From TrEMBL:
This is Transcriptional regulator, AraC family. The lineage of its organism: Bacteria, Pseudomonadati, Pseudomonadota, Gammaproteobacteria, Pseudomonadales. Residues 234-331 form the HTH araC/xylS-type domain. One of its GO terms (cellular component) is cytosol. GO terms for molecular function: DNA-binding transcription factor activity; transcription cis-regulatory region binding.
Length: 334
């Protein structure tokens, strides 16, 4: 599975909507992500998994059970065209197979498998390769949202026979029983939700073969475009990272990619980003690493990131994170 390096703002907006009642809260949750409050009004914008991860780090310090809360709100309609394709599938089993065949459109950080063995079926989320400190949050978010997707597709709750998680039982473990409505096991061998396999053959109430065929074809096209965008973003980031502290500029980068400057600018705009945004994101990631792991003088860090003046780096870091490099460094090195 290819884990998405780019994603939509949907989960971030959902988290802010769940937790925040005012602008101050929004600013606190966006701190350090490089996402501005104004960006939340740009539905076409794409953000990196690293940016989304920072928002979730901030959010889980305020609400430990956020993964369950978000999962209960991530309805099938949240997935756009893919959601419509799932709703129009003939059966629950067919819908889940389609969903798991488009991990980039689903936006998952796991490899998802649908397994069937006699009277039992289960959905397994494995191969997690993101931040270790967010593993519990992401597992909760993943499996609770998949349960909700199944409920939406069926038009009624999918009865589970068990839910198993590899992490330890959290303080709020009673909420698992409420959300999954079945016996729950922690410290398990795998992350799974289990149900009667007969549900996989259940015809969906909104099944429509014509709509499903059309939306499935469009999902394939969208997936190809998305993966193509991912490849370009990855290549741009690799080239920029290899040249720090220097930066080639848009024209220089375009020449390295064998694009015209105009074409590269347009393609990045279509992905909701820009040359400067990607460079800033890379510099911000490097700055946080250097501030958190090494005791280099801030002037040396500024130089390593391509800033000729320390004041310019301080200003940029303040804009990215909402705090100064020295204040950011204190808790990191405490």
């Amino acid at each position: 599975m290819q884990h998405s390096q780019l994603t939509t703002l949907h989960a971030v907006v959902l988290a802010l909507d769940t937790l925040c009642q005012d602008g101050a809260c929004i600013d606190q949750l966006l701190a350090g992500s490089g996402i501005a409050a104004a960006d939340l009004q740009r539905p076409e914008m794409r953000i990196s998994i690293a940016q989304e991860r920072q928002v979730f780090r901030n959010a889980t310090t305020r609400c430990q059970d956020l993964g369950l809360l978000l999962g209960r709100r991530m309805h099938v309609s949240s997935y756009g065209l893919l959601g419509f394709s799932l709703l129009s599938a003939a059966s629950l089993g067919e819908a889940l197979e389609v969903a798991f065949s488009f991990p980039a459109l689903l936006g998952t950080l796991f490899t998802l498998h649908l397994r069937r063995d006699g009277a039992q079926a289960w959905i397994e989320a494995s191969d997690y390769r993101d931040a270790a400190e967010l593993a519990t949050f992401n597992t909760e978010f993943c499996l609770s949202s998949l349960k909700l997707i199944c409920d939406d597709l069926l038009g009624r709750p999918l009865p589970l026979t068990s839910a198993r998680f590899t992490h330890r039982a959290p303080r709020y473990q009673r909420q698992y029983t409420r959300d999954f409505a079945c016996p729950v096991q922690f410290n398990a061998a795998a992350n799974v939700i289990v149900f009667d396999s007969a549900w996989l053959d259940r015809r969906l109430p909104l099944a429509d073969p014509v709509t499903h065929r059309d939306t499935l074809q469009r999902c394939r096209q969208l997936n190809r475009e998305f993966l193509s965008h991912q490849a370009l973003i990855s290549r741009v980031r690799q080239l920029l990272a290899s040249q720090l502290p220097d930066s080639p500029g848009l024209d220089g980068l375009a020449r390295q990619l064998r694009y015209s400057s105009r074409t590269l600018r347009r393609q990045l705009q279509e992905m909701g980003t820009s040359y400067q945004s990607l460079l800033d994101e890379l510099r911000f990631e490097q700055a946080r690493r250097l501030l958190g792991e090494e005791r280099l003088p801030i002037a040396r860090i500024a130089e390593a990131l391509g800033y000729s003046e320390t004041a310019s780096f301080r200003h940029a870091f303040q804009r990215w994170s909402g705090t100064s490099p020295s204040r950011y460094r204190r808790p990191a090195l405490a």
